[in-house]
Amino acid sequence: MNKIKELSISSYEITLELFKVMIPTLIVIKILEEIGFVQVLNTFCAPLMLLLGLPEAISLVFTTSMLTSPYAGLIIFSGLPIDETFTAAQASVLGLLILFTHSLPIEVIICRKAGVRARAMIFVRLGLGVLSCYLLNLFFQITGYMNYPATILLPSLESAPDILSWALSQLKGLAMIFIIIVALVIILDFLKYIGVERLIEKALKPFLNFLGVGEKASTIAVVGVTLGIGFGAGLLIKEVKTGKLHYKDVFGIIILIGMLHSIIEDTAVVSLIGSNIIVTLFLRAVLTLCIVYIFMRLGKSFTDEFWQKHLTNYNIPEYKPNT
Predict the structure, then answer these.
(1) How far apart are CA 256 and CA 250, in angstroms?
(2) Which terminus of the chain faces fewer neighbouring Cβ atoms within 10 Å, N or C?
(3) What pTM does this model have?
């Protein structure tokens, strides 16, 4: 009974925090839709969607996920007229795009507090994220890989002609999100019980050492990768204040957990739109590790002035390794 109570409380708290953001966002999007702004946004983002091989209407899913959360993006996706022409390749590109760029404003603020400049994080997550998706789409177009209808596990929410119908449709969408959250909480608890988190930790640490991330920083990175950027960056902010982490290690960790966090939950969420796990989990991990490796190696040639001016900020105190 205690475990059921614990899982119920956890599901409630997660849902409450998400709905605090999602409900106002859905209302704002409806208002913008009524005044014609959504059509303007679709037109503005159409070239980017075309570049990534995605339908123009997907731009609203992208911007909603980027500004709020993947869950809000799911509701928007459910309301789109997606048919069998939407392929597994497109779903995988969209899934990877959401994973790299979701919740950008709040997560950039968290990373900034940990000591990494906002513009550096935006460049990495948005710039390199979009570039990665472009190259992935190019690969799919050349090879024809995954050129079959996506298996979408979300119920379709019909377009509502009036406000009352729209409100009922959104309530159905929110109920769907709640069910997804409850299922994820149960699954994550089970995976933790059978030791999957420890397995991920053992698998990641050799790579982190190879990348040049210190031992203490590696432990924090593992927390961020498995539990989320809030947990990982929270621990990092606390540790950074002691002055015992080198600013290059801090930057490496933030890049890592910025692009690769909550790997179980987030991967499961985007799988609902038909994304392939090979792309959203394994390719995402490989791309992230490559990006961190390049930054850590290039960083050796950067001056301290360059680091402090463009990559890290004043939130990282003077390095004191022996205190």
Answers:
(1) 10
(2) N
(3) 0.86
Cα dihedral sign for 289, 290, 295, 298?
A: positive
Extract the tokens encoding 131.
């570039």
Greatest Cα pair distance, the chain, in angstroms, is 66
Reported as a single tens digit per residue, the pLDDT across 92-126 is 999 999 999 998 888 888 888 888 999 999 999 99
> What is the C-alpha separation between 6 and 13, in angstroms, rounded?
11
Contact of 94 with 129, CB cutoff 8 Å: no
Cα-based angle 247, 254, 122 (whole degrees, multiple of 5): 110
- CA-based R_g, the chain, Å: 20
CA–CA distance, 34 with 60 (Å, rounded to integer): 14
Contact 280, 264 (CB under 8 A): no
Residue spans of the domains in the chain: they are 2-311
265-288 per-position pLDDT tens digit:
899 999 999 999 999 999 999 999
